[in-house]
Amino acid sequence: MSEAEAEYFSKDFDWDDLRNDVESDPSLRHHLLPFPPPAAAPAPPPPPDVAAAWGGFHARHHTGKFFKERRYLLKEFPELVSRGKKNPRVLEVGCGNGSTVLPILRGNEDVVVYACDCSGEALEYAKEMLDASNVASIERRFYPFLCDFALHGFPMWLACGPCRETSLRQHCCSSGEEKVELPLRGFDMSQDSSCLGGVDFITLIFTLSAIPFQTMPKALAECFCVLKPGGLLLFRDYGLYDMTMLRFESGKRVGFREYMRSDATRSYFFSLEIVRDLFVCAGFIELELEYCCIKSLNRRSGKSMCRVWVHGKFQKPE
């Protein structure tokens, strides 16, 4: 196994050991308390404009090395580069600046990626990154569009009403793949465009944690609706007791295991049980679900940091 593969597939520590350490540390007790907080605690801030918050986030971090191309995804989710499916369609939800889209397009020359984000700024940066990447046939394989899937759902051209009602068992549109017409590279694709009849894969990479917990069931139901029968949803997100969770102060809590940063972006930290409940209730079949526990070295401080992510693969029933 190569060094890169070992970095993303080894278990540097046991999650239960980390849990015991966290739950026995008095200084971290505020992470374990139920929510809402005691009456004496200050009230949480009003809900911010999510799109504006993430637009500002991407404006601050789109340059430099803050976002790295997520090459590990192709090792973690080899289905994306498998040649078993002809011209697979991938829906990347919450694409940000394109760090997930780029390795998918590089790794499979047959794949077509529909990438959405709630932030127009993020989509602009993603388009810039992809245009500068020299990926083959980028204009025919990359379709970014503006969409807040948790708030408004996905557009009907991904899967129309009859398709959703029949759970995509049969395509309602007889036009075929070659006749689907979509505005190239446009962010506001027409709601009246021919229906795609769903997608083969959905990638949900550090996206679900960024929306309010109470909206997650609706968001996953939307994902279920636009996924073809037998299709896969590939999931990676923040795990419970990840280093970034433990850094939050008590005043940053806006829910149980849910926090808001100073820039008004939010983050939820998942246990395996919560992920399983959310996806199974949405209709998915669990194929893989585990913690990825990686020790990362901070070169400046010399300190070892315990990172925890949740890896999951879920399938829509045939």
From TrEMBL:
Its EC number is 2.1.1.-. S-adenosyl-L-methionine-dependent methyltransferase. InterPro entries: METTL2/6/8-like, SAM-dependent_MTases_sf. This is tRNA N(3)-methylcytidine methyltransferase. It is an enzyme of class 2 (transferase). Belongs to the methyltransferase superfamily. METL family. Residues 26-45 are annotated as: Disordered. It comes from the Eukaryota. GO terms for biological process: methylation. Residues 34-45 have a biased composition (Pro residues). It comes from Eucalyptus globulus (Tasmanian blue gum). Coiled coil: none annotated. The keyword Methyltransferase applies. Keywords: Methyltransferase, Transferase. The keyword Hydrolase does not apply. GO terms for molecular function: RNA methyltransferase activity; S-adenosylmethionine-dependent methyltransferase activity.
